[in-house]
Fold this protein.
Amino acid sequence: MKRSQINSIMRSADEFIRRHGFLLPPFAYWTPDQWRTKGPESAEIVRNQLGWDITDFGSGDFDKVGLFLFTVRNGHPENWKTKQGKLYAEKILVVQDQQITPMHFHWSKAEDIINRGGGKLVIQLFNSTPDDRLADTPVEVSTDGVLRTVKAGDVVRLEPGESITLPTRLYHKFWGEGGKVLVGEVSLVNDDKTDNRFYESVGRFPAIEEDESPFHLLYSDYARHYKGA
Ligand SMILES: [Fe+2]
C-alpha cells in the first residue's frame, strides 16, 4: 500500500469515529517526530501492539478487501502464563460498505464484535473441522446474550447496537452493508502476529511504499521510530 493512501484512510477513519462520539486516546495523535522522543514509559504501546493498523490483506484493493483497525487497549500474550496484567483487549474498526475481511478464526482469542453505528455489519459463519477446514455443521452463536443457530455459511446481520460473540476456532468473514460501519471489538488478549488463522493465505501487514511522510505511525512502523524500549 502507498503511504499516501494509508494517511488518507487514517484521516477519514478518524473523522468517522469522532462523528459517532468515540474518541481515540492521546497516543493516536503523536507525530513521528514526537514518537522519536518517547522513552520507556511508553513501552506498553509498542509491546502490546496498540494503535493504528490498516491492512488490505495483500489484495492490492483496500476498498474491496481491507480493514481499518485501531487497538485501544491490549495485554501481552505472556500475561496468560502469569494471569497478571491485562488479559483483555479493545479495538475500534471501520468497515466500509461491501469491504471484505477474509474468512478467518483465532486460536486463542474469543471476541465480541459490536456494531457501534452506521450501516449493517454482515458476518458469515462456519464451524471449523479438527483439520481447520470449513465444517458443514450448524453454527450456534450468542448475539447479545441470546443463542441462535444458523446453517453453515449463513450470515448474521448486526444492526447498530447489536453484537455477536465469536468463540475461538469459529470461522468468520464480514463486510458492511448499506454504508460504512463503526465496529467495536472487545476480546481476550490479541496477538495479530500468531493468533489469526486465515482460511486462504493473506498478507496481514502490507509492505508500504513511502510516497509521502506518515501522518501517524502504524503499529508496524514503531520499530523504525521508537527508541525508548
Ligand atoms: Fe476475528
